[in-house]
UniProtKB/TrEMBL annotation:
It comes from Urochloa decumbens. It comes from the Eukaryota. This is MHD domain-containing protein. Belongs to the adaptor complexes medium subunit family. It is found in: Endomembrane system. It holds the Pfam family Adap_comp_sub. It is a peripheral membrane protein. Residues 85-94 have a biased composition (Polar residues). GO terms for cellular component: endomembrane system. InterPro entries: AP2_Mu_C_sf, AP5M1, Clathrin_mu_CS, MHD. Its main location: membrane.
Length: 631
């Protein structure tokens, strides 16, 4: 059974107040679960999760029993996810006793029953999205269930790869775990309203070219048409917002209500009888509203599940390379800079029929791609020399063809140094000296670039200083320096930018009321480990919540470094570059082949943007092991 794919026994969505907001059980899968146990001879002994001699497992627990078990686990483990690491407070039979961090995401629930010891359900895949807890219980074989029950009692269990029968080895033989994570992820997207197609960038019009491009390029300004997102067919009114009218409602209990009918209809279409068939929300919605295509197909072709109906219209195929660069720049001889690129190739194939597309990737040797993964419709050849060929039958709409990670193979787009020192308790002097786009030639274009100096524990009163280029503005807790503005791109040459100045803060006594409010707000969300993937926290952004959470734990420091509160002794760089990739991995649109042959132009665009791109204060103490998002 371990190789038989994924089937789901039940789904629960719980609120932060330990109540069930939504549940769905699949009777067909549950019947299979009971049949497996009867074929194996029943429970058969202790450690199986229920009493010895029981020939069939109990029924799935009621909603209130699941909510009570989840609340008890959260109390016992410290948070809903727990740490996954065995401590002195861990007890035999708890997930933390297994001593494996994966138990933060694949958990067990112990269901209490009056008059008996109760029973356990496992593996329950846990994800937190939008303040809700999404629990998915997949179907597993009795042997795997018994193996985990034995782990809960072993004194020597853990995550060591040398062990036989450890949790990792058990889960590797269960493909249903991956399927359950995919189910939980898409349900979380529907709850939060994060159902959007991947971005595919195309030019809004032809390049003006000629003399104007030559003139503007020679002075470092781009006059070319700006890239825009590829148009997507308008969805039906009911599907345009997955959370429906609830999006405009006020928050209730710290979470945003979601449309249960939309979620229920998606589950019916995506996983009939509990077996996931197609978890693409756009496809499921299209099938529900328009049905499968009625166009006849050639007898030698089979319509794939990811293409429920055929495209009709002007034919073309669009590709986009979208890269994000993460960097920590120290400008020190004793500390090496960190640079890394994560990217994806997105595609939109507006092709009639069911053609096969062959796409060569170039620059593999230059890019030194470390990790790559492909869409399930892709057949990838083994990399040879500097190329790799992808053959696929594209689905409808925008989709991610591949993900990859690679080092940055050219100089950082923004480099230089940042210095900040305090001249008094409420005044600091700073200096930036930067170089932008050094070594970058046309067609690379920097569309915008901005530097942000965050001061999360001080309120900015004013600043003095004039940058050599750009404009400056301030917020309550930051100073923002916009070097390159949108609409006036930088192309064809590098520039140097300097910004000396001073910043003044309000006295600390004027901040006590505001700081007290932040402490109360942070205490209300004490479950630190539960917020990692939560994109919405009571209407605020995740970055704001993480900043607020870390502030709560940071201690006051001496005057000589009053701004060096661990993660905040830095300036953050934000930028967007079009016209090339930073990794060196590219696509040659002229080499794209379509079979059967059709007259369809292939268009290719490239874009790179900043992720965690940090300039550390060279005068302060800066961490060297991690980036701010990992602290």
């Amino acid at each position: 059974m371990s190789g038989g794919g994924c089937s789901v026994r039940a789904i629960w969505i719980l609120t932060p107040h330990d109540t069930v907001a939504f549940s769905r059980r699949f009777a067909v899968v549950e019947k299979r679960w009971r049949a497996f146990w009867e074929a194996e001879g029943g429970g058969g002994g202790e450690g199986d999760g229920w009493a010895a001699g029981v020939t069939a497992p109990p029924q799935l627990p009621a909603d209130h029993e699941v909510a009570a078990a989840f609340a008890e686990r959260r109390k016992r483990q410290g948070t809903a996810r727990g740490s996954g690491i065995r401590t002195s407070l861990s007890s035999v039979g708890s997930d933390s006793w297994v001593d494996d961090p994966i138990t933060r995401h694949v958990i067990s629930l112990h269901i209490a029953k009056e008059g008996s010891d109760g029973f356990m359900i496992w593996p329950v895949v846990l994800q937190k999205r939008g303040g809700y807890y999404v629990l998915v219980l997949p179907l597993v074989d009795p042997q795997s269930f018994r193996a985990y029950g034995n782990l809960l009692k072993r004194s020597d269990c853990g995550s060591s790869g040398k062990e036989n029968g450890n949790l990792s080895s058990i889960l590797l033989n269960l493909p249903c775990i991956t399927g359950a994570f995919m189910v939980a992820h898409v349900i979380g997207d529907i709850i939060t309203g994060d159902i959007v197609e991947p971005e595919v960038i195309v030019n809004s019009g032809p390049s003006v070219g000629g003399l104007l491009d030559s003139l503007t390029g020679s002075i470092g300004i781009s006059a070319r048409s700006k890239p825009t997102a590829a148009p997507v067919a308008a969805p039906t009114a009911s599907a345009s917002s997955p959370v429906g009218a609830a999006q405009s409602e006020s928050l209730k209990g710290g979470v945003r209500p979601f449309d249960k009918d939309i979620l229920r209809n998606f589950i019916i279409g995506a996983m009939p009888f509990g077996t996931p068939q197609d978890l693409n929300y756009a496809n499921v919605n299209s099938i529900r509203t328009t049905g499968y295509s009625g166009d006849p197909l050639p007898t030698d072709q089979k319509q794939p599940a990811w293409k429920p109906y055929l495209y009709k219209g002007r034919q073309r195929i669009l590709f986009s390379s979208l890269e994000t660069i993460h960097a920590a720049l120290y400008d020190r001889d004793d500390v090496s800079d960190f640079l890394s690129v994560s990217g994806q190739v997105t595609c939109r194939a507006e092709l009639e029929g069911l053609p096969d597309v062959s796409l060569p990737l170039t620059g593999l040797k230059t890019a030194h791609v470390e990790v790559s993964s492909f869409h399930h419709c892709v057949q990838a050849s083994e990399p040879t020399d500097n190329k790799q060929t992808l053959v696929f039958q594209p689905p409808l709409g925008n989709f991610v063809l591949m993900h990859y990670q690679a080092p940055c193979n050219i100089a950082p787009p923004v480099k230089g140094f940042y210095q900040l020192s305090m001249v008094s308790e409420n005044e600091g002097a700073f200096l930036f000296k930067l170089t932008l786009m050094e070594g970058y030639k046309s067609p690379f274009i920097m569309d915008f670039c901005m530097i942000t100096m965050p001061f999360p524990r001080r309120r900015v009163a004013s600043y003095d200083g004039n940058p050599s280029i750009g404009t400056v503005s301030m917020t309550e807790h930051s100073i923002e320096w916009r070097i390159v503005s949108s609409g006036r791109g930088l192309s064809g040459r590098s520039i140097e930018a300097t910004f000396p100045g001073t910043v003044r803060f309000l006295p600390r006594t004027a901040q006590r009321t505001n700081s007290s409010f932040r402490s109360v707000s942070s205490a209300a969300y004490a479950e630190d480990s539960d917020s990692e993937q939560d994109n919405v926290k009571n209407g605020a952004s995740l970055d704001d919540y993480i900043m607020e959470k870390i502030n709560k734990d940071l201690q006051a420091v001496d005057l000589e470094e009053p701004l060096s509160w661990q993660a905040y002794n830095y300036a953050k760089v934000s930028f967007k570059i079009t016209g090339g990739t930073l990794s060196g991995l590219t696509i040659d649109p002229k080499s794209v082949n379509i079979y059967p042959s059709v007259k369809a132009p292939a268009e290719y665009s490239m874009q790179a943007s900043s992720g965690d791109y940090i300039l550390w204060n060279t005068l302060g103490k800066c961490p060297t092991a991690v980036l701010p998002r990992e602290i």
